[in-house]
Design goal:
Layout (H helix, E strand, L loop, with lengths): L5 E9 L2 E6 L3 E6 L16 E7 L2 E6 L1 H4 L12 E9 L2 E9 L1 E9 L18 E7 L2 E6 L1 H4 L2 H11 L1
Parallel strand pairs: 2-10, 5-7
Antiparallel strand pairs: 1-2, 1-8, 3-6, 4-5, 6-7, 9-10
């Protein structure tokens, strides 16, 4: 891809942080509520909120705040579930990712993307593809396949079926 071509990204917020994911991975955005309630799964890893019905399929929902070491959602907090189509272990998986709020769809050119700075051993930079600085804020472009625990998701999908 040349530096002038652009790709569309879904921009979303987790607390005060901005993240983006390619719109090609996004299937739908679900507003939680009576029709779309997350059902808790006993003994699920802490980063898995539970499962939700998506077009007649049971899909796992990842608590992205916990996955990225942010504070968990308060009990009655409002959030959305971004339904994603990911390739994990060479297989297609549909999963949900909790987000505080979807902000926008933005265009990002390859030349806008800066490398992830090295900040030490405790930080897992493989979750982030790059960083974009726009309107005085930093946006982290996610590598969702790396961030979402493949083994956790596959195990949960098998247990939920």
């Amino acid at each position: 891809m040349d530096s002038k071509s652009s790709n569309s990204y879904l921009l979303f917020r987790l607390q005060e942080e901005l993240f983006a994911v390619s719109v090609h991975k996004v299937l739908e955005i679900i507003e939680t509520g009576d029709e779309h309630t997350i059902t808790h799964l006993p003994k699920a890893p802490p980063s898995i909120s539970g499962v939700v019905n998506f077009r007649g399929h049971v899909i796992p929902v990842v608590n992205t705040r916990l996955k990225f070491d942010l504070d968990d959602y308060p009990e009655k907090a409002k959030f959305v579930v971004i339904v994603l189509n990911l390739i994990l272990n060479k297989k297609e998986h549909i999963i949900g990712a909790k987000s505080d709020k979807v902000v926008d769809v933005i265009e990002i050119t390859e030349s806008d993307i800066k490398p992830v700075p090295e900040v030490g051993q405790g930080y897992n930079s493989e979750y982030i593809k790059g960083v974009v600085h726009r309107d005085g804020k930093f946006i982290m472009l996610l590598n969702l396949e790396a961030a979402i625990g493949t083994d956790e998701i596959i195990q949960l999908k098998e247990e939920a079926s």
